[in-house]
Amino acid sequence: MTKTTPTFLPLTHYRETPEPEMRSRALEFYEDAKRRRTVREYSDRPVDRQVIENCLRTAGTAPSGANLQPWHFVVVSDAAVKAQIRESAEQEERAFYGGRAPQEWLDALAPLGTDSQKPFLETAPILIAIFGETYGVLPDGRKVKHYYVQESVGIATGILIMALHHAGLVSLTHTPSPMRFLNEILGRPSHERPFLLLVVGYPAKEAKVPKIMKKSLKEFISYV
Ligand code: IYR
Prior knowledge:
two-stranded antiparallel ribbon; binds 3-iodo-tyrosine
């Protein structure tokens, strides 16, 4: 057992925002966030690697259980690897849409118009496979247990989605199930669990999105 004594630093990076500015910033951020749409039709236009890396740096600022940062992101742009991922994902999706999914689930998905075909897995320039690490491995090989992996990776992924949107890209959270094939294709160890596959790029010229609604505030908050 090793116990590290904490070191504290002054909170020099905090900037106080005057309330009127705070109000406009909050509103402007919301106005921008609500323009974001999940996109399933992609252009093959390449995206700048520096942009992707800065968005990933942003994701890496996420809070996490004991600050252990239990995530790993694989940035896939290789056409052959994307083709392999598409092949495996569509195999699972055919099973899902062809009987594995209960009717209730299929009914819930109906407004999105999805099916087992996932051409975007090849068309989009970038797939980011996001893994949650159940434990970390120190340079000497010792294992360090991770905590709140799902929560931590979920938060990092949410921040990544907003960073990509902020940069001017679109994305799709794709979760073929099961997703273990990602470990094999991408050579990741089995203590890394695939969390989701984020499809990233520019929308196709004629991209369409389903007509769906977000809940209004009063439907999802309450005060005490
Ligand atoms: N993974 C399938 C099904 C699917 C499930 C949910 I929950 C969605 O929000 C969307 C799709 C697919 O990608 O088609």
